[in-house]
Amino acid sequence: MNRAIVMYEGTDTGPGRWTCTKDSREQILRGGFCIHIKRSRKEMAQRLNIDLDNLEDVPLPSGQRIREHVVRKIKEKPAISHLPILRPRWAEIPTDRPLYPRPRPTWEIPADHLFTLSSTSSCICSGGERTFYDDSKPTIVGDATLYTLVGSFSCRIELQPCPKCPPFLRNHIGPDLREAGVFNYNNITLLTRDFLDDYTSLYTSSETPFDAWCEMVIQRYTYNCNAKFMHKDLFRSCWFAYATLQQFDNDFQCPQCGPLPDNIIWDGVSLAFSRAQLSGSLEPPMSTSSSSPVRPSTRYLPKQQVIPNPKLREMIREAIVMDTLEEIANKATSSKGNSRRSSTPQPQQAVNTVSGHIDNVALVVEQLGHYNADLVSLFSRWFGVTAYHNGLSPPTAVKIFFRQVAVEESVVQMVNQDGLLALGAFLESPEPTTARKLIKIPHLYFLLRFDYDEDQPGYSSSVLSICAWINDRACDVFQALCANAGPGMNSDFNEVITTDWKSTGCYYSLPKIRERPVYPLLSNEQQDQGNQKSAVEAEDTSGIMAAWCPHSICYRFHFMPGYEGRNDPFPAMITRWPKAPKRVIYDFSCALGPYCLLREPQFFADTLFIIDNFHSRDHTKCAPACFASTYAQLDPQISEINTSAAESGNSLILRIRKARSSPSSLFNTRWTDGVDWIYWREGWSHLNRPGDAEWGVASHETQVLGEFIHSAQLYATVVTVEMLPPMRTLPLDISYFAAHGDHRAWVPAG
Fold first, then answer.
1. With contact defined as beta carbons under 8 Å apart, do 716 and 672 qualify?
2. 55 and 121 belong to one structural domain
3. In angstroms, rounded to a whole number, what is the distance separating the alpha carbons of residues 39 and 160?
4. Could you tell me if 560 and 625 lie in one domain?
5. Quick check: helix, strand or coil at residue 596?
């Protein structure tokens, strides 16, 4: 067949890119003519009711990828039952409000049992509205099947033809059956609430996908006169419709951190599903609109380091890690018997190494003099030629200081505004009491502690001069960043921007109070892929970015349409946090800090960006000021932070990866919200059992199993998900087990 396929990539308003499989795009751009594109434009203009002139072939906006905005309509079929239902008994907590008396479990019913209509009976009409039962109109009796824990049973159900739906649809008003403990899916398929809760309990306790559970039920039903079970696809639809009715209060908030935690831990989890499953309604935090503020003057600001000269920084790093003369001699001696000899004799190589190091040190001393004379004196004392010749071993505090001075990161990365205030107070009154506040700047604190003279209490003038130089340098860079960024973020937010998180895929405990600013002079602003090399293919998405508090309670999440990058945590904090957190912990804070401070320096002025302990080992070239472990040596508030709270929680969601291979099961977005809620409530019960009144006893188990499963909820919208089998437990404090035993088996009474 001689067929031509025309493809249009662009917006619904018209501008976009046209291609045809019969005529090359190069030919069309050179002024050629394609009858297929012409006819397609005309057809599209008629369908969209827009001007044909708007459908001209124009280039897409720079960096825009239409494939990241594939519109996929989510089909969701509501059930006949519509009233809110009780939580599972094992997920209740004392503060729950009773909606209605909990019915007794239904195991079986007589064959002639009739479910009757009531005032709450309804029909879900094609337009989405419900039509309720009218007792003045006639009713009929139909046949239905009730599925219980032990088998399926035939029953009868009273119905009323829907007066609003077209007759050919044969839609009927049916009973809700909430008080009977039955879920009415479509007036034909009825399921007991205990039966549906049984599946919820099973898959929250172990990895039990729908297929495996349905097979187990089929085998169970064989003990009951070979009763038949429904098809797995029908049960899947029933369970998701049932999950939408469970009442899950929005009570996720850490009792210790409150609504605005000072310490926030960001981490993303990669799920890698096809971009073809993306929903067109998704609106991650990095999305902008016509009301987004524009920062026309913000551009990349070079030379933010303590020492602007990159070559000098490199020479300093080489000088402070140089082997001693004895070590070089030992290497030269031990290499004599090596068969792989270079053209230069080993002793000569050793001489060349020492000579090169001496020249390097001389250059460092010369160029450091352009910045601070006392800095030269400190370097020469411990790393100069004389010190090297005498085999002088530099103190750890001095090595840490020069390593920090020679890093590639910005000076405001290690000296934020809070640190500047502490440094200024110390310079005004250089005493041990004010020096103690410099734990916010560890490399300076270590140097001052080493320099302090116990015999003649005080600090040397040379070290104080170095502190003043760093203070001036940090102030200059911060002022340059503020001038470069322009007006700061508006702190007045009287209006809250409301959106439906079930469609936008952005769900945080804090409401949206601002729009993400636009930075036109920063290239690839919306396409930042951060610094993670994802293993997913180019046609796959990334996953979920979640925010955690140190007590393993998730403060919600957002969906990442592309690879994980700095442009994920940044807009989430900008658009929802009234004030930036004091500490941001992220596995790539070394890149996130400069990214945030370049764009909104005033908003993040007091924020400390640090890398969690788990990922620190991979950052071999990053500055000590980037690591949480550096500050934990001095600051007890940081040493108490569980920096791996997000990592342990995100490990739960990785199991959803295997579900993405099921292309036929697309479910609504409320599913994981309910699962998350159930986990949190189980944890709440554990924490509030007799003797465990204090929060935090089992934070690494119960709170993780609370909020993070929310993140899979989005994938119930945008991904074809078969099942999320979350983990029930995480390792707890061993001392707690020693004192109380394994509390995970405890079930609250009642």
1. yes
2. no
3. 50
4. yes
5. helix
Residues 475 and 506 in one domain: no
Asked whether residue 462 is assigned to any structural domain, the reply reads: yes
List Cα–Cα distances, 394 to 323, 378, 381, in angstroms. Answer: 12, 11, 9
pLDDT tens-digit profile of 252-285?
Answer: 678 788 889 999 999 887 765 555 556 566 778 8
Tell me, what's the pLDDT at 263?
A: 95
The encoded tokens of residue 358 equal: 């001496």
Residue 572 and residue 563: Cα distance in Å, rounded? Answer: 16
- SS3 readout for 560-610: ECCCCCCCCHHHHHHHHCCCCCCEEECCCHHHHHHHHHHHCCCCCCCCEEE
Cβ proximity of 33 and 24 under 8 Å: no
The predicted structure's pLDDT at residue 273: 57
Dihedral over Cα of 671, 677, 678, 683: its sign: positive
The backbone region for 351, taken as left when phi is positive above 0, alpha when psi lies in -120 to 50, beta otherwise, is alpha
Do 477 and 577 belong to one domain? no
Q: Classify residue 304: in a domain, yes or no.
A: no
Residue 418 sits in the same domain as residue 480: yes
C-alpha closest to that of 553 among 687, 721, 658: 687
- pLDDT per position as a tens digit, 469-494: 999 999 999 999 999 998 877 665 65
Q: Which residues are within 8 A (CB) of 219 and not within 5 positions of it... i.e. 6 or more apart?
A: none
Residue 261 lies in a domain: no
H helix count then E strand count, the chain: 27, 16
* Domains contained in the chain, number: 4
Identify whether 437 is part of a domain: yes
